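Please check the following for our workbook:

***
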Amino acid sequence: MKTLTCINCPIGCLLTVSVDEHENQCIKGNLCKRGIVYAKAELTNPTRTVTSTVRLRNAAVSQLPVKTSSPIPKGTMRACMLALKYIEVSAPVAAGDVIIENVCGTDTDIIATRSMPAITDLHA
């Protein structure tokens, strides 16, 4: 038996997953259908959305918040974070701009989550 906390909604249901002799999964503890979907995905192919920052030049702040455009396999998170470590972008940047395409071969982009004007644009 495995215990999971569902992260698909604010309730955070405590799920218990057991497997019978025929490899059928029995999922209990969910208060909505999303708990079942989450548990099955977590056991077969866990994914996460990565949020971080990259260095930013020519702006009032030195860091730009970014995230993956969709969840990536949990096992690629470390490589994704390492790729972000070396990225530096220049303002202006708009929320939703692609910072890295197809990060770590995941078919997922790293996108900006905040618009940031260039310093020269601040006084215009």
Observations:
- The radius of gyration is 19 Å.
- The chain is about 20% helix and 30% strand.
- Strands lie at 2-5, 14-19, 25-28, 47-48, 51-57, 63-68, 72-73, 88-90, 98-100, 110-112.
- The longest helix spans residues 33-44.
